[in-house]
Design a protein that fits this description.
about 200 residues, mainly beta, 3 domains, 5-stranded antiparallel beta sheet, 4-stranded mixed beta sheet, about 5% helix, about 50% strand
Length: about 200
């Protein structure tokens, strides 16, 4: 199967997401109802299916970075879900979390008559920035991840505990440190003996 991705969004500014199956060239457009993608599919007589309809699974509170990260004070954090293999925004939902505490939290999402619990990293943009290392290290439950921040001269500025979620290592960095830092390095230690067990290459902030 060849996947051809063209730019589009749920409000329908441009384009469509098209799946082309070889050899019969059967096309299916994944579109939000009323979007430009739907209009495109109808105009070109291409089969299409709607995103965001039916029962969502694997629901996750998210952010513009497509990670389970929420800025404290957000009244309506975005929520995405899996609609039969197609990712889409979950409308008409409520997200409940502790907006006075930063760090890893259990977040309650109510949608479509159902309430679930999921996890997200909550941070205060007025006091801190978050940095996502990605999946650079496989941190075990018996280990801790610590991120050191350094300026352009290699001077050590501070240390932050890494939060592991969705196979990503994320750290919250105080704004005053983030302003001076140019790179961060993830170090992994044994949680009991504090013996180093691994480290990442420096990452640019």
């Amino acid at each position: 199967m060849i996947i051809i991705s063209l730019p589009w969004n749920r409000w329908g500014s441009t384009g469509a997401e098209i799946s082309a199956c070889i050899p019969n060239y059967f096309l299916i457009v994944s579109a939000y109802r009323g979007s430009a993608a739907e209009t495109y599919a109808k105009a070109e007589d291409i089969a299409y299916k709607y995103i965001g309809e039916g029962k969502a699974r694997n629901v996750m509170a998210t952010s513009e970075y497509h990670l389970p990260i929420i800025a404290r004070g957000e009244e309506n954090a975005s929520v995405v879900g899996d609609y039969d293999g197609v990712s889409g925004v979950v409308d008409d939902c409520m997200v409940d979390y502790d907006d006075k505490t930063s760090g890893l939290q259990t977040v309650t999402v109510t949608y479509d008559g159902e309430t679930i619990e999921t996890q997200a990293v909550v941070y205060d943009p007025a006091k801190e920035k978050f940095f996502d290392f990605g999946d650079v290290k496989d941190i075990q439950k018996s280990e801790r991840g610590l991120a050191g921040m350094f300026d352009g001269n290699g001077r050590f500025l501070g240390l932050s505990e890494a939060i592991v979620l969705e196979d990503h290592e994320t750290v919250l960095i105080p704004n005053e440190v983030y302003e001076e830092a140019v790179e961060a390095k993830l170090m992994v230690i044994d949680a009991k003996s504090f013996t180093p067990t691994g480290e990442s290459v420096p990452e640019k902030l």
